[in-house]
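Request: How about a record?
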Amino acid sequence: MRTVTTPIIPTHQTFAKVKAPHELHLEAICVFVAIGFFLDQDTYWKDKVVLAPASKHELDEHGFVVDSKPWFQWHSTPTISDFSEALEAYSDLFEGIIDKQTKGKRVILPLSGGLDSRTQAVALHRLQREVFSYSYEFQQGYPETKIARKIAEACDFEFESYSIPEGYLWSVLDRLFELNGGYSDFTSPRQMAVVDYLEGKGEVFSLGHWGDVLFDSMHVPSLSKDELVTFLERKLIKRGGLELACKLWDHWNLSGDFTSYLKSRISELLSKIRIEDTNAKLRAFKSMHWAPRWTSVNLSVFHSVAPISLPYYDNAMCQFICTLPENMLSNRKLQIAYIKHKMPELAKITWQAHRPFHLYNYHFDKVPYNIPYRLTNKMQRMMSSLIRKPYLQRNWELQYLGASNQIHVIQQLQELKSDGFIPEAVITECCHRFYQGQSLDVAHPINMLIVLSQFYKSRGHG
């Protein structure tokens, strides 16, 4: 017998066995197809589960789950009412966590134009850590690395910029599947395009994942249970995902209908979260399911190069969140105040989500103040299109569009047609629509079909 204690937000999936037939969990796969990740403890197989977060699990000598009990439950119990007190507590906790995670080590810091990595830059600069920082951007996309470079220069960090190239996916697909196990699509972890450049650059990654969820609100009004289930269902389902999931549900002749099944699963999981406030409940749901089953899955790409640390995943940070009132967690208030107070020069650098504004004037990102930038940006994208260089915003555009990529996509999906695991008509229709001008509507289904094709090739190893 052995005990496995999982953190509040695990950085990786820990698999275990349960007594059930060793057969495909087709209902769970339909959910995966619809939303892009597996819910709760589901996997591809009925006799294989992922250990739930924030719990103590007893496993027997064969790896079967004997017992599981939670050691922490998300709650909303505000004990801090003064913003200055909250800011001081956040600053001390955040810098203390990063100090513990990086002490005596050369740090690899991915930088973006957002706030999470910027808060880390502030803390690492104040702690006088040796830092190698980097950023990447899409070919023919927004020059995100310009903002990251300015942050690195202000902190006196070593910095390199990279470009995400067209079609890199096909040379790393097998390796990426080994790393994430097919529990995520393959275009979201764009770090896979640059990971080899990071070998030997440092001793530990400091990753800013989940800060934007913990320190913001979804700005949702108070909802009833049924309203919340409907709202979350709409948030979870990816564009084109419901249609594909329903077709597979029918093809596999599963009982009932998919939409009812998904709704009941969401309702069941929400009922286990004993929080009244709608936004706090949603934050808890995302942290219990979205983070460990989607965000964490691709942390393995970073970990293939060096150990990883995530200050916003830390147990103490999650526990701290539960003590703050919702009004302090909305609109990134604490992170913004921390940057402005501790390192004002970083606050004056463009915030990408509100470009061209920064942390002192982002409130002007509204009409009429942002009209000049919007017009200029639109003109730049139009000019790019005129010279046959479309403005790209998503990784799948670089990996799936174009003649060469199309050949790879078709070849990748060919094996799925071989014995009817996925209906050939469904695959053909998705590809036809994707390459006939409906790419935005079918990008997610193409993503999911490519994942299933990789899983299908390795399914005997489940």
About this structure: The beta strands are 2-5, 15-17, 48-50, 55-59, 65-70, 107-110, 131-138, 158-164, 204-206, 308-309. The chain is about 45% helix and 10% strand. The first helix runs from residue 26 to 35.
